[in-house]
Amino acid sequence: FGCLAWSHSETHLLYVAEKKRPKGESFFQGKAAEAGGEELGGPQKQEAPAKGEQFVYREGWGETLGGRSTPVLCVLDVEGSSVSVLEGVPEHVSPGQAFWAPEDTGVVFVGWWHEPFRLGLRHCTNRRSALFYVDLAGGKCELLSDDTQATWSPRLSPDRCRVAYLQNSALGPHQQCSRLCVYDWYTGRTRTVLEAVPRAAAGESGVPRAAGRRGQRRGAGLSPGALVAGAFPGIYCSALPGLCWAADSRRLLLDTVQRSQQDIFVVDTQTGAVTPLTADAPQGSWSLLTIDRDILVASFSTPSCPPKLVVGLLPPAGQEPTLQWVHAEAVAPVPGVSWKTLTLQPPGEEQSPPARGDGAPGPPAGAARRPTLTLCPGGPHAVFDARWRPPAAALCQLGFAVLMGECGTRGGRRLCPHVSATAPVPAVNYRGSLGFGQAALASLLARQGEQDVADTQLAAERALRDERLDRRRVALLGASHGAFVALHLLARHPELYRACAVRSPVTDLATLLGTSDIP
Questions:
Q1: Domain 372-409+422-513 is of which CATH architecture?
Q2: Which of 169, 326, 463, 500 has a C-alpha 20 to 30 A away from that of 17?
Q3: What is the pLDDT of residues 391-407, one digit of tens each?
Q4: In contact, 173 and 126? CB cutoff 8 Å
């Protein structure tokens, strides 16, 4: 919900706060207590307490939003030093992610429906929501987007003519491949710039990077037709960067995972063409922090190198592949930690491409066999990309290696584990992880405890076979749904796993129904 937005005139500040309610009180509140309060503090003007509501349960919005049930939009008048609550917001939605409309005539916000329930908004982008506009003069509220979908992360263009936002289905997986939509403020028309990608490219780990590294035209833009074919992996980010529009108000920048890595892309909102900005850059995780007057500020990291700040100047339209990244600071890799990507083929995937591996080599032939930790990601729809993870690096320093794997969807996808090696720690992205297309996500529905467990076991077995790992010293680590997978593996393969550590494990769905974000 959070937002803190200056008006264009810089005289008002817009923010979100929890609605203030009268203090709840029991029906049996004694008069003696009331009288005692008057003696201590003297007569004071207070709001009448809400009788019988002392123990009324109010549903919150779930993880990281505890105690947040009914947010309201507030406006601070800087010159008048006054705060007012914005009127006109429909009572059946909770407003958030708000910003000022062009000319400060009103406020644009995302409204999330309260029904059928509130729980779980933090990690669920499939909750019914829509884009609204409230006119400050008359208090009239207008619907700007489809109210049967899930909508979030609106961003106003620099020329104040267009609003870009992400959208996906209000049903299905809790994280999905999103659509990029643009609303024209003056015509009132909405256009879908990028559709959800059913299947990611079946070739290399993301066509943009492979094209730049295998002799094809460097960083060539991807046409909308190429998107249908799966060249662009789709949008899987939880939000657009706060500042994501180029100065021309036509191009939009975002970062998103594509299989085992995260890259930065520029999207032409008029033609739908997508161009990678990190195609020839080092492989790892690229995160766009902000853009100001076409100056890009980003962060880059790998499993063996902590995040470093990089900057670049966005070239004119059509020349984006000439972008040169400049490192603003020098960050040395952690000594003794190397990593690589392994490509595996789950059984039954007849149309899958051949298995491949790239990156740093594994331990030398004469190296001692290392103990192995298998990391199981949460989610279930999440991803382990090639970014810096301090716990994994620490485990490597202690003598363990980290395998982070990814599985494609059924019918022609791949299983690609990452291995960080000073010693082995497998962390597997099973089929159903982000970055492989919508079909990969949907393939896990109704197959939790089967497909995810089988893929994780496959990655662990393949790493034990191909790397110099000690099969007698294998352990499991996991949290949330990752703990669910880890416990399944421990129960099914007790002869392999010698130890297991889980946090917030999902062990009994029946008891969690109605009281937890998990169902």
A1: 3-Layer(aba) Sandwich (3.40)
A2: 169
A3: 888 888 887 766 654 44
A4: yes
